[in-house]
Design brief:
The chain is about 65% helix and about 0% strand. The protein contains 16 helices and two strands. A two-stranded antiparallel ribbon has the order 1-2. Helix 1 packs antiparallel against helix 2.
Length: about 500
């Protein structure tokens, strides 16, 4: 019996030393591996992917090696906060199935377990980081991975590198696409918003770590990675992630007592907006169209006519798609004879009267209106239907484009407060550690505080904590920060 126990302990020790490498592998694999589905789930286009199995394997190994530490891990305040949030989340699913009838059990549980899956890497990282050297390795790997992501993103723009997207049900099946001219890059992510959120995290980290590393080679590497990442962020034209990045870096300067750099950051941000047309046009359109309700010309067609502003489709001369041809012919019947003498003439498509005719303004107009008129009211109605528990996970479909309203709508006040408690515990811990730590550990914790700010800012317009590539990466970083501060307390 003693020999068996000794062998188990020896195996646990060996496996424990490999958990860190599993964390590193995930932090590389998840950003770089496109979202190819392995198996579809009925009723949704959220698919089971290879990363799910890799994460499951890591969690199983971690669980086995920490059998003897269960009580210790459960005593952690952050573990208790996680468990409370998960428990309330499970209750909301049951409530959605039984009380409000807004959730089917299989989809509700799928969305619930997704939340658990995305957050559990925090506990794995927090309890497995043994020393500061491991955290340094993680940062090096993160910057190298980000550089590869950025290079691939520019490859999509200029060299037609493949795109794998999950922006609709057909694309989510793993279709290999290429960017059309003027389209925003996804790189290895499922959409440009996910890519922008990832780059925001990396850029905030780079803004902090630049002041830790002293050698010119290290600084040059950080600057190079930051420049190419920032340029790609501009090409995504993701306004909220751009703002989140500036806020995160600015707050880091404040925490590091480098207040004068905030002025330079503002100047650099203005220059960047002026230099990157995609970002500039969308920011300007946000003000002129969404805030001032103005902008350029609006689509106001005369009855049964086609004008120069109407979107059009050109028939492929070699096409044999009869369904497409029939649809085009039906649409053309509504146009006046003088404007449809050939197949390549414009005809009314999906633009509605009163919408901007400028393509950028149209995108900005619709982006906000779908939130303001459809997604956000839907979340508020769900919250009002059951203020305490919401209508359950999956009841708000795949997107709400606001993590706060999504939490209120799906999990009610109890779910929202329990999730807020998680961040309260984390932020309190990190601020406390920040004043005690020195060197790399201090900079890592400051960066972690600032990526919380950046991510929570992005969450105002994007369901970013439901995006697997961002959420898992985000929680791994915060787990490492917790482990770094925990190790410091043990050694003092």
């Amino acid at each position: 019996m003693d020999q068996f126990v000794a062998k188990i302990n020896s195996l646990q020790s060996k496996l424990n030393s490999w958990i860190f490498y599993g964390i590193i592998a995930l932090s590389v694999f998840i950003p770089l591996y496109p979202k190819f589905p392995l198996a579809e789930v009925s009723g949704t286009y959220v698919a089971i992917r290879l990363e799910d199995f890799l994460l499951l394997l890591l969690v199983v190994i971690w669980g086995f090696t920490n059998i003897g530490n269960v009580k210790k891990i459960l005593k952690l305040t952050i573990t208790q906060s996680f468990l409370l949030f998960w428990f309330i989340g499970l209750i909301t699913v049951i409530s959605g199935v039984i009380l409000t009838g807004t959730v089917t059990l299989n989809l509700g549980l799928l969305h619930f377990f997704r939340r658990v899956e995305y957050m559990i890497p925090f506990l794995v990282a927090a309890t497995s980081i043994q020393n500061v050297r491991q955290a340094k390795i993680f940062v090096y790997v993160m910057f190298i991975t980000a550089a590869i992501v950025a290079i691939y993103g520019f490859g999509q723009i200029y060299f037609q590198f493949p795109v794998i997207s999950t922006t609709n049900s057909e694309f989510s099946k793993g279709q290999i696409l290429t960017l059309s001219p003027g389209a925003r890059p996804n790189s290895t992510f499922a959409g440009h918003y996910d890519l922008a959120a990832y780059l925001s995290i990396v850029l905030v980290f780079a803004g902090v770590m630049f002041f830790f590393y002293k050698s010119l080679k290290q600084k040059a590497f950080i600057i190079g990675t930051s420049l190419i990442s920032f340029a790609l962020l501009g090409f995504t034209a993701a306004r909220i992630s751009f703002v989140a990045t500036i806020l995160g870096i600015g707050f880091s300067f404040l925490l590091m007592q480098k207040k004068l750099l905030i002025v330079l950051l503002i100047v650099a941000s203005v220059i960047a907006v002026a230099a990157i047309p995609q970002l500039r046009h969308r920011l300007v359109a946000t003000v002129t169209v969404n805030l001032l309700e103005g902008g350029g010309p609006k689509y106001e067609p005369s009855p049964n006519t086609v004008n120069e502003f109407t979107p059009f489709i050109r028939r492929d001369a070699n096409s044999t798609d009869s369904a497409k041809t029939a649809t085009i012919a039906a649409d053309l019947k509504e146009a006046t004879p003088s404007t449809v003498s050939a197949w390549d003439k414009p005809f009314p498509a999906d633009i509605a009267p009163g919408e901007p005719t400028n393509i950028t303004e149209l995108g900005v107009y619709r982006s906000f209106n779908i939130r303001y008129d459809v997604e956000w009211p839907r979340a508020i109605r769900s919250f009002l239907k059951n203020p305490l528990l919401g209508t359950g996970y999956s009841s708000l479909t795949i997107a709400t484009d606001n993590d706060y309203l999504r939490a209120l709508g799906e999990t009610g006040i109890l779910g929202f407060l329990s999730f807020s408690l998680v961040f309260f515990v984390l932020i309190k811990r990190y601020f406390k550690a920040m004043f005690k730590l020195q060197g790399f550990e201090k900079y890592f914790v400051i960066a972690s505080i600032c990526i919380i700010l950046a991510t929570l800012t992005t969450s105002v317009f994007i369901d970013i904590l439901e995006a697997s590539k961002i959420a898992i990466f985000f929680w791994i970083i915060l787990g490492i920060a917790w482990g770094v501060s925990e190790n410091h307390e043990k050694n003092t």
